[in-house]
Amino acid sequence: MKIAVIGGGISGISAAKVALRFGHEVVIIEKEESLGGLMAKIANCRVGFKTFFDEIKDEPNLKVMTKKVVSGLEKKNGRFFLTLNGYETIEADRIIIAVGLSVYEPEFRKKRVLSSFDFDSIIDQRNETLPEDFRRIAFVLCAGSRRKEYPLCSAVCCSYTLRQIKWTFMRSMPEITVFYNDLRFFGQEYFLERLFREANVRFLRTNTQNIEETEDFVRLRYYLNGKVVNEDFNYVVLTSSLRPNSELIRLAEIFGFSLNQYGFVSEPSPLRTDAENIFACGGCLEPMNIKDSIITGYAAGYLASGGKERERERKKIFRLDDPRPDHFSDGGSRFVLYLGASDPYTAMFYEFFSHRFLELAYRLKEEGKEIYVLTRNVVAPSYGELLYQETRKKGVIFIHLEESDEVVFEGNTVHIKGQRSIKIEADRLILMEDLVKDLKDCEILGFTRSEPQLRWSPTKWANDRYHVGLARYPREKRWEMREYYAALAEMFLEPEKKQVAKVQEERCSGCASCEKSCLSGAIEILRRETKVTLFGPYLKFSKPVAHVSEDLCVGCGSCVATCPSHAIEL
Hints:
Layout: E1 2-6, H1 10-21, E2 25-29, H2 37-41, H3 46-54, E3 62-65, E4 70-76, E5 79-84, E6 89-92, E7 94-97, E8 101-104, E9 113-115, H4 116-123, E10 136-140, H5 157-169, E11 175-180, H6 189-198, E12 202-205, E13 208-213, E14 218-224, E15 227-233, E16 235-238, E17 241-244, H7 247-255, E18 278-280, H8 290-304, H9 311-314, E19 317-318, E20 334-339, H10 344-347, H11 350-366, E21 370-375, H12 384-393, E22 397-400, E23 406-410, E24 413-417, E25 422-425, E26 428-431, H13 432-436, H14 445-448, H15 451-456, E27 460-462, E28 465-467, H16 479-493, E29 502-503, H17 513-517, E30 523-533, E31 538-548, H18 558-562, E32 568-569
Parallel strand pairs: 1-2, 1-7, 2-3, 7-18, 9-16, 10-11, 10-16, 11-12, 19-28, 20-21, 20-26, 21-22
Antiparallel strand pairs: 4-5, 5-6, 8-17, 13-14, 14-15, 23-24, 24-25, 27-28, 29-32, 30-31
């Protein structure tokens, strides 16, 4: 079988990797001069993309065609005959659309008002110096997203801002302020948020009203705590939003698949378009991050390759029951739902319970209830923003809490204290933190794996266990089947000879850093008896050394990375 992948970004490369593993011929058709898409444009992600692509670049069944676009199509006997610019023709049995996202740059960009990519070029490690006035920086989130002309959330802008702060602090320590509507982070990023707060990064939940640039500074005017505030910064970063690639309109006409009203590929079933034998992955489906681009790429590559679900693979899939707060419709006519977290671990459930609370509020409102939703954060990325807006239009009252607001519960009475004073007498209170208690002991992959591990092994918990749905990361239900097919692909990609960490005991100091870093519990510190010669006689003593269980080791390499003695290798 021959598979054509349209788009050579990280999702397209992921799909190609799986298809090649099946033994199929793969041709990657890329419009630009080089592969990598948006990931290759991010200064601190270029190396990661190159490393990932290097794993397949020498495959004999792989053909890469750059500076090429599909200009025509003919179908004969179930096969695709693609005409490229330059009048070349490519034959294929399956098509994977992976053209990625387009970056929408804010209109108001000048010398000191920058887009995310403008700022990225300033802090790029290849630049020897930073601007002399790199002292006060403001990030304004949701610039270009969650607007009337484009209602979706870009899903990655908040996370990308966190990383830009981290990369900035690696080079300098300016004063940083983040202006936000909601902080839509992913997993362990909430711990990074807390770390930055402790490092005096200001997070202000407010709408920026006006931006004025002068030769020497940028003045932001915003509303906070009942007052209009004017504040000056050296640079203001307006986060770039992610929108559907304009190429999708042309490709949809050529291949005959449908786009939804927001310009993304319609997905009647996971990773499939409504055109026969044409699949889709990555940013052509919706705004998503690198990890999810890899997941959907793996899944699309698996389905396009004709991957079959076998019982032995299904047994390795691990799920958790989805606790939906559906049993709260009784208990009175006035409900208060509190969407707030007091610690980073609870905050990692924001996306999951934001969606559940929005669904519940919408349903209760339809039943004629009076509904108040108090929010510290509404995490509704991508299409989730649509449910958020529909719930507001339904008449649900949202009270967005500012950073300084305090919420006090006395029985069923809610007091909001701060610059404003609000009191609500409720018949029923539903608190996110109460519901999280039932999930805190669950083994959730996205809460325990580091960013690199989640990126390159997106579903693997152990050699015999792969997590999908709530067990991978708590969020909207539509992701579960995408993750399911990605897990099957990841199993298929496993090398025939399993990678296991090996300890060179003569170099091991027994410091236990590897044991602490191992998330699969495969390493323990043992004491080995040894002999040494001291002025003639032998002395016996026990030495601590690391021991790796081959059955438990998943070959992730975290122990290799943390060993200070370089005593472990895969």
